[in-house]
Amino acid sequence: MVNATTQAALPVTGGAAPAIEVRGLVKSYASGDGVVHAVRGLDLTVAQGEIYALLGPNGAGKTTTISILTTLLLPTGGTATVAGYDVVTQAADVRRRIGVTFQEVVLDQDLTGRQVLDFHARLYGLARVQRLAKIEELAALVELTDVLDRKSSRYSGGMKRRLELARGLMTEPAILFLDEPTQGLDPQNRAGIWRYVRHLRDVRGITLLLTTHSMDEAAELADRVGIIDQGQLVVEGRVDALVREMGADVIALTGVGAPEALIAQVHKLAYVQQVKHLVQTDADTADASGEATHMLQIGVDAGDTRLAEIVTMAAASDFQIRAVHVARPSLADVFLAHTGHALRDTLES
Ligand SMILES: Nc1ncnc2c1ncn2[C@@H]1O[C@H](COP(=O)(O)OP(=O)(O)O)[C@@H](O)[C@H]1O
Ligand SMILES: [Mg+2]
Fold first, then answer.
1. What structural domains does the chain harbor?
2. Using CA positions, which residue lies closest to atom 11 of ligand 1?
3. 219 CA to centre of own chain
4. Residue 50 in contact with residue 210, Cβ under 8 Å?
5. Predicted confidence band at 304 (pLDDT cuts at 50, 70, 90)?
């Protein structure tokens, strides 16, 4: 069982060399109508034995980052080492130490589960005895033993994902990359993947870098989360620490007018931990008059008891409240506070 204390003790930089180190990573794609800046100066350090989640909306640059770290794509700039090896100049060394599962399922559907695993192991030159043992072991881990001789085309979405996970583990990687490992899965299969991921870290000491656009998943699974938006890491840390920084409770005031004086006043209150000011000016979110909508996220010690005073202050200011919301902060509030937009707004429906 991993508790808060042992998680806090995980080395982030000092001690053992980091499993993954990314500095100033840049990737630009040439596209028909110009250049897409997918990754724009990303810095990232993942300690050995850590589960690190890159959390961000679609288009944030997660798959691009994973593709560079797994040597499938060359960066435009910056550096990255995986297991101490440079992903550009020592790609073969990197490949020998990693496993990866992709966002999209890539299985030869004509093959049975067993054949998929065996083929992959042959590709990496594993001897027959070793292959047989590994297949049995990993099929048991991802609970596919009973269906191993069925064609993978007949697997459910969850079974396909589990098979891919087993394939990624055939070569006993020290570092495993999982790109959106539970995308499209039902809750039961998600929980299964989460269980295997924890097992891999706890029992085998594998370092995991996974990407997700699910805040649940990041909060549930990761030792540390890095929030990625528009190709940059906007904040990183342990989920509980990121959430705690928001205050014990968050009072969110949405409204129009001039909130500046109110913000200055609220800042002076002893029980206010922090104030974030977000402005929405997009045509569809702005007030009908075309006026910008403001949201103030006010982190306080206790929302229920402080609400009246803050609302009274607002009423006496040039800021007109349209909605009030008090809640325990969550990773969603952290995301909003650091990126200025809600994660769900940017997801595909
Ligand atoms: N091969 C490509 N050519 C051009 N643009 C790309 C290519 N792959 C990704 N992009 C663009 O780069 C940005 C980041 O994409 P991606 O890394 O897939 O993000 P994520 O995995 O976070 O959704 C997006 O704007 C995407 O459209
Ligand atoms: Mg992606």
1. 4-241 (3.40.50.300), 247-328 (3.30.70.100)
2. 38
3. 9
4. no
5. confident
Other Cβ atoms within 10 Å of 147 Cβ, number: 19
Residue 273 is encoded by which pair of tokens?
A: 């931990």
Distance 257 CA to ligand 2 centre (A): 38
Ligand 1 nearest atom to the CA of residue 179, by list position: 21
CA 169 to each of CA 11, 36, 85, 142: distance values in angstroms, whole numbers, following the listed order: 24, 33, 20, 11
- Residue 107: name the closest of 152, 165, 46 by CA: 152
List the residue whose alpha carbon is closest to atom 7 of ligand 1: 29
State which residues have CB under 5 angstroms from ligand 2, the bound ion: 62-63, 103
Euclidean distance between CA atoms 183 and 5, whole angstroms: 30
64 CB within 6 A, ligand 1: yes
Owner of token pair 């065996």: 118
Distance from Cα 81 to the centre of ligand 1, integer Å: 22
Give the whole-angstrom CA distance, residue 114 versus residue 136.
Answer: 9
Judge if pTM exceeds 0.70: yes
- Quote the ligand 2 centre to 112 CA distance (angstroms): 27
Express each pLDDT in 82-126 by its tens digit. Answer: 999 999 999 999 999 999 999 988 888 899 999 999 999 999 899
Q: Enter the tokens of residue 49.
A: 């034995």
